[in-house]
Amino acid sequence: DGGPLGHHILTFKRDGDALTVETDVDLKVTLGPITFFEYLHDVTEKYVGGKLTWVGSRTKKDGKWKTLSAQAMASGLKVESEAFKGTLAGRVIPSTHWNQDEMKQASMFSTETGEMLPMKVTDRGIERVKVGATTIEARRYDVVSDLTASFWYDAQGRWVKCAFEAEGSKIEYVLRKLPG
Question: What pLDDT is attached to residue 60?
Fold first, then answer.
């Protein structure tokens, strides 16, 4: 109904050539004491020299907690989760959506299940997006995968907006303000 649903917070920490990205998603629909929808998803990604070295997540969906751990090995990304155990070869970009390069691949690494999810991406070009008190230009990508969504990235490649439908509701994320 146009009200807040929760939060989706990304935190970036640099230490030399190491980068840690933390994702905290907490979405909930309630009416009084009754919860109709709850989705919690915490992900930690670690990179060294721009290469993914480790991913860990925990997700609460449909009232159940699931965990994932993935470690970079010489043979690829070794994944341990309830839905998938195995090694993924090639470049793997987690489905945390902050990395615009995710839009340039044929599949994405699900940080919920550990599976590679096929996806079809359509570049819709540049659109105007309101971020905080300003309006910027951002490139829109429409993605069809396990979830159909649109993602917008500014000229610096920063994720500034997302829109999708879930549980019969239209959900929109918009960056509150540009960094800096």
Answer: 95
With a CB cutoff of 8 Å and minimum separation 6, the contacts of 44 are: 20, 21, 22, 23, 54, 55, 56, 57
Number of residues that this document lists for the chain: 180
Tokens of 111: 């940080």
Question: Measured between alpha carbons, how far is 175 from 121 in angstroms, rounded to an integer?
Answer: 22
User: pTM value?
Assistant: 0.89
Tokens of residue 85, six digits? 């155990």
Q: DSSP string covering 71-121, please?
A: EEETTEEEEEESS-EEEE-S---BTTS--GGGGGSSEEE-TTT-PEEE-EE
Tokens for 106? 């044929």
List the Cα angle 101/142/59 in 5-degree steps.
70
List, in sequence order, every residue forming a beta bridge with 173; answer none if it has no partner.
162
At 111 the three-state DSSP class reads: coil
